[in-house]
Amino acid sequence: MYLSNIFTDPEMEKYIDIIVSSFLPLVKGAFYYTIPLTLITFAIGLVLAVITALMRLSNMKVLQWIARVYVSIIRGTPLLVQLFIIFFGLPSVGVTINPLYSAIIGFSLNMGAYNSEIIRAAILSIPKGQWEASHSIGMTNFQALRRVVLPQATRVSIPPLSNSFIGLIKDTSLASTITYTEMFRKAQEIAATNYHFLLVYTEAAVIYWIICIGLSFVQDRVENRLDKYVAK
């Protein structure tokens, strides 16, 4: 069969029409819902992660215990179950949260727990001599942490945090299970009307893949830029 005949085949034309007609709604779902949700939850999660990491490194046993319990609960339970507890479970005790806020709370808590271990490890990787040098010039612990240790720890944590961000892009598809209309939810709605589940879901997967490739490129550029300030 010639190439021209393939594209003029009625069945193939139908598939092409489905791909073209579903492309814009899926892209809108990605840029209007999936990516903003990822940015918001990652930012909130990063704040929680820094606080949790500092609590784990604190000399106060109570703070250490609270942080350990939080991380243990979040890491020890599936993200999907956490979302279901927030969205479907809390209404049974009179607390009703809409899909968007449920997704933000669930993903932020999850990112906070996982990223706290990344940040804690990054801080611990900084040689103790950096602390001692800071103290020798009159810095307090807080000043040493803010001006000396955290900037270096940031460079160390960029690669794993970037991977965590890319993973979050894909994890947001779980928000479809609590009726939040992100990209995968759009794909489900489109597939439910034309019954071409394989075609539409594959198209959504390709869009996720393209987004992740773009983010990986940005990650490489950021790491290469930061490498300029690292002594060789």
Automatic annotation (TrEMBL):
Q: Give the PROSITE patterns listed for this entry.
A: ABC_TM1 (PS50928)
Q: Which domain of life is it from?
A: Bacteria
Its main localization is membrane
- Tell me what topology the record assigns in the membrane: Multi-pass membrane protein
Family according to the record: Belongs to the binding-protein-dependent transport system permease family.
Query: InterPro entries per the record?
Result: AA_ABC_transptr_permease_3TM (IPR010065), ArtM/GltK/GlnP/TcyL/YhdX-like (IPR043429), MetI-like (IPR000515), MetI-like_sf (IPR035906)
What residue ranges are annotated as transmembrane? 30-57, 69-90, 195-218
Annotated ranges, domain ABC transmembrane type-1: 31-219
Q: Which PANTHER family match?
A: L-CYSTINE TRANSPORT SYSTEM PERMEASE PROTEIN TCYL, MEMBRANE COMPONENT OF AMINO ACID ABC TRANSPORTER
Q: Which Pfam families match?
A: BPD_transp_1
Subcellular location per UniProt equals:
Cell membrane
Q: Any idea which GO molecular function terms this record carries?
A: L-cystine transmembrane transporter activity
- Record-given protein name: Amino acid ABC transporter permease
A GO term from the CC aspect: ATP-binding cassette (ABC) transporter complex
Q: What is the lineage of its organism?
A: Bacteria, Bacillati, Bacillota, Bacilli, Bacillales
What are the alphabetically sorted keywords of the record? Amino-acid transport, Cell membrane, Membrane, Transmembrane, Transmembrane helix, Transport
Q: Which residues form a coiled coil?
A: none
